[in-house]
Amino acid sequence: MTRRLTARGQRRRQELVEFAADQFASKGYHPTSVADIVDGLGVGKGVFYWYFESKEELFRQILAEAQRDLRRVQRHAIADEPDPVRRIEAGIGASVEWLDRNRRLFVLLEFARTEERFAPLIRMGEEQAVADALPHVKAGIDAGLIRREDPLVLTQAILGVTGHLARVLVLEEGRPAAEAARAAAAFCLEGVLSPASARRRLAREAD
Amino acid sequence: MTRRLTARGQRRRQELVEFAADQFASKGYHPTSVADIVDGLGVGKGVFYWYFESKEELFRQILAEAQRDLRRVQRHAIADEPDPVRRIEAGIGASVEWLDRNRRLFVLLEFARTEERFAPLIRMGEEQAVADALPHVKAGIDAGLIRREDPLVLTQAILGVTGHLARVLVLEEGRPAAEAARAAAAFCLEGVLSPASARRRLAREAD
Amino acid sequence: MTRRLTARGQRRRQELVEFAADQFASKGYHPTSVADIVDGLGVGKGVFYWYFESKEELFRQILAEAQRDLRRVQRHAIADEPDPVRRIEAGIGASVEWLDRNRRLFVLLEFARTEERFAPLIRMGEEQAVADALPHVKAGIDAGLIRREDPLVLTQAILGVTGHLARVLVLEEGRPAAEAARAAAAFCLEGVLSPASARRRLAREAD
Amino acid sequence: MTRRLTARGQRRRQELVEFAADQFASKGYHPTSVADIVDGLGVGKGVFYWYFESKEELFRQILAEAQRDLRRVQRHAIADEPDPVRRIEAGIGASVEWLDRNRRLFVLLEFARTEERFAPLIRMGEEQAVADALPHVKAGIDAGLIRREDPLVLTQAILGVTGHLARVLVLEEGRPAAEAARAAAAFCLEGVLSPASARRRLAREAD
DNA sequence: TATGAATGAGCATTCATTCAT
DNA sequence: GATGAATGAATGCTCATTCAT
Questions:
Q1: I need a labelling partner for C58 at 20 to 30 A (CA). Which of A64, B113, D103, D152 fits?
Q2: Residues B74 and B146 in one domain
């Protein structure tokens, strides 16, 4: 495969990717047939197989592109920010925004995790995401800004909060991405304790 | 349906539920056929349709039982605990432990969210989970132990951290559930900031 | 596969084998679709895949059964015949008769030789046939009845004449099998030379 | 069709014929797609349909050319040979050699026989081959060199031995064509009987 | 209760052929 | 002459479900 495509071919391919992602996201990967996709675009079945080796390969490409794109956006968001904590906040913001603007892909990434064939792709992508975020957490620890705890665990927790709040607040409840990002960042930085309670706890730990 | 079953029938049914859940979790719901299930148990196809109206109905029952069971465990864990923050910690611990002991079901719940037909079930279950946890967060706020923020957001954030750390640390990295639970609880209570940084922030906010 | 079949199942399977062999032989293996077969029998498509793993597997089974049957017939024909030359004649006769009664299978064996996937099966069967006939040729040589030449070549030549005359005389021209068998045997034993010519040749060789 | 081709066109066409024959012979006619052929040559699909009306027509042309070529070679081999028996031997030799040098085509001829659409072509070619050889056999009979038997049967038997030994000895076992030709000729002339046995048989028949 | 057999719509994929450029 | 793109009927196969026993 990996055909050399003309401009027209590029456009067709993109149409297919986009329409398929929509269908996969709304009906599920399995319940969406290749026929659904080509019929939806009003083209013959051969078109699909001209551009993709199989339904599965198309799905993998959608996943890979999604992960690539999210990563690109995150990197861009935190560039030129000297404070590591601010970098983390910026990353959270970029992620929530991306998930908001690419709801379809969010669902697909979650589905992919549930099937043996695709799970490795997702895990690799997630490891990449952790590897991307880890240095900033470590820098925060070194700068005395972040608690001296396993940075990997902290990073994962941040990713967990961000993903979950994005889904629930933005996708399900329809709140603005910025609000969810703010809430996620605040939670990640300070947790749930009240200032008084936190102070008491800090004092206790100082003993 | 809802047949009256003999003791032997009960056992058969349970075998089917368990084996199907295993297969669904490892291969995916769609890639697992009814034939896979009955062949795996060495029984005829009629057996399946004696106990379940359809593959879909079986799956719904698995999901419902899973949600019921998780809820039961959480309730039990936090009973008799007067401190609301401690109740939250106990709930996190119980959840992580349950997810550890029921990995299959965890995956199934995540898959179910990705398909129109099953998503409502999951959303209902999650709303229930939030509704269960919410009072404790509110109690914490009222007692001045927890920050005066939208309790629904805080609750969701807690669920997000808990689920994600359980998956990553326990299921994927194989760490003990207790450790993941401790990490999740700590993160939820205090966030990532170092004591010094937190103090500074608190001081700033006090202005 | 290799399902345990009830009597009814056995009958169904046989119907499929027979009808498919007919179709394969008259239209060709590839031009015969599974749909042709099941439609021809007025059954659903699932029936086919209940009894056979694939179209290819069915074809292999037809080939294997054909070779097994031909071999059985040949063995039976030459049993209890003390003279090796007579045994060869009997074998030729049995082969021609079988090919006459199983024209379909004859064509299928020939087709199978032309496709990489099936050729090994045919070659194995043919080696078996040679191995079966060889001892008789050797015995003929040892008894001074047959020329002292490479017995393998002689055996192959006999098989070649037999197969070809069976096809041309019996299948294509419709002559009786017995006649073709007689012609084949005569040719194999004496060749084409006239008595006078043969005598001269023998004399010359004796020098 | 029958396009007037430039020199370059002639070469292109020949490339297609040759490559297709190779693929048909090794993978089979049906399993070889037009795409396989044009991709294998690195040209577009239009090229194929510029030179051939269809895949089937291409195959027919390959078959026709093969038969024409074999016939040409045989005729050439037996020219200027006054002895009819020697002519037959020469024909056998030429055939085996041709089959050796054109293995691909041998397989294709055999396949063609197994499919309704192509079988008539093959049968016509074979009848031609018989018609070509028949006069020599008849001449042998008239000259008292060959047994007074149905010359058609004798001719067919010769063709059968030749084809089979060429396939088995030369194509499958890799022996030299000349050796197979010698064996085939010897078998055709004298059969399998030993001189002594033949003499006895001749004596008996003289009664 | 349970089984083997059967159904048939549906699926992913192939492929000979055509077409616009 | 040649290419990439498109067509769409047809193919081998799957599978949830039903049925006769």
A1: D103
A2: yes
Query: Is residue B34 exposed (0-12), middle (13-18) or buried (19+ Cβ within 10 Å)?
Result: middle
Q: Which two tokens stand for residue A9?
A: 């071919």
Contacting residues of C for D63, CB less than 8 Å apart: none
Question: Do residues D169 and D186 both lie within one domain?
Answer: yes
Give the CATH number for residue C47.
Answer: 1.10.10.60
Question: Does residue A87 approach strand E to less than 7 Å at its CB?
Answer: no
Q: What is the pLDDT of residues A35-58, one digit of tens each?
A: 999 999 999 999 999 999 999 999
Q: Is D85 found in the same domain as D29?
A: no
Q: Is D189 in Cβ contact with C190 (below 8 Å)?
A: no
Task: Tell me the nearest-neighbour CA distance from C9 into chain D, angstroms.
Answer: 31
Q: What is the CATH number of the domain that holds A80?
A: 1.10.357.10
Q: Does strand E come within 7 Å of the CB of D124?
A: no
**C138 lies in a domain?**
yes
Same domain, D101 and D195: yes
State the CB neighbour count (10 A cutoff) for residue C39.
Answer: 12
Counting the structural domains of chain D, the total is 2
Shared domain check, A176 and A109: yes
Short-list D163, D172, D171, D187, CA closest to D113: D163
Q: Check whether residue B47 and residue B72 sit in a common domain.
A: no
**Residue B1 pLDDT:** 55
Of the candidates C26, C147, C196, which has its C-beta nearest D193's C-beta? C147
pLDDT tens, position by position, B86-126: 999 999 999 999 999 999 999 999 999 999 999 999 999 99
Q: Where are the alpha helices (DSSP H) in chain B?
A: 7-27, 34-41, 45-51, 55-78, 84-101, 103-113, 119-142, 151-165, 177-190, 195-206
* D54 at interface of C, judged by CB pairs closer than 8 A: no
Q: Which nucleotides of E are covered by protein (CB under 7 A)?
A: 1-20
Q: Residue A207 — very low, low, confident or very high, per pLDDT cuts 50/70/90? A: low
B79 & B125 share domain:
yes
Distance from CA of A132 to the nearest CA of B (A): 16
Of B17, B34, B53, the residue that ends a domain is B53
Q: Does B92 share its domain with B24?
A: no
Best to test chain A binding among B145, B159, B192 (most A CBs inside 10 Å): B192
C58 found inside a domain: no
Name the burial class of residue C52, with classes exposed (0-12), middle (13-18) and buried (19+) by CB atoms within 10 angstroms of its CB. buried
- Name the nucleotide nearest B42; use CA and C1': E3
Domain hosting A66: range is 62-206
3-state SS class at A83: coil
Any residues with CB less than 8 A from the CB of A103 and at least 6 apart, and which? A25, A171
Please tell me the distance from the alpha carbon of residue D150 to that of residue B3, in angstroms, as a whole number. Answer: 82
Minimum distance, in Å, between the CA of residue C160 and any CA atom of chain D: 5
Which residues of C, range 113-132, sit inside 8 Å of D by Cβ?
113-117, 123, 126
The residues near A121 (Cβ < 8 Å, ≥ 6 apart) are: A60, A63, A64, A67, A112
